[in-house]
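Input record, target 12 of the design panel.
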């Protein structure tokens, strides 16, 4: 499952509201709602919950592949779908599927080799790899 930035912020916001409500309920139940130390404790509950959420999201992120700036030009992938009549599709890179955009005159077919030019979020910009170039890079 791939989450968009909007969905990630919605998830973190919902989680923060949940932990704030949990902290307020605990303070209300203990009759310490407006004590300074209790408010600090509530803030700690919220912060710990937010950190746990971020760590869990990193652990179960949709991709474990990182493409650094200099590395992208050497990374190859295979087209797995899409690109028929549109500039978007999916490519397989190091065993994981990525959304990809292609700007070029030829249409890409499943199985075609592509080179990664750049990455924006979870979308790759790719170019077709000619068979002669593929043989020389191998």
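The sequence produced for target 12 reads:
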């Amino acid at each position: 499952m791939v989450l968009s930035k909007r969905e990630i912020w919605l998830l973190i916001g919902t989680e923060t509201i949940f932990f704030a409500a949990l902290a307020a309920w605990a303070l209300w139940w203990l009759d310490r709602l407006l004590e300074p130390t209790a408010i600090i404790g509530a803030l700690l509950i919220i912060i710990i919950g937010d950190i746990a959420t971020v760590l869990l999201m990193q652990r179960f992120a949709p991709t474990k592949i990182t493409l650094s700036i200099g590395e992208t030009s050497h990374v190859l992938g295979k087209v797995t779908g899409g690109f028929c009549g549109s500039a978007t599709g999916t490519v397989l890179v190091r065993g994981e599927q990525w959304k990809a955009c292609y700007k070029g005159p030829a249409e890409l077919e499943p199985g075609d080799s592509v080179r990664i030019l750049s990455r924006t979020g979870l979308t790759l910009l790719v170019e077709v790899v000619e068979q002669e170039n593929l043989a020389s890079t191998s």
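The first strand starts at residue 76 and ends at 82.
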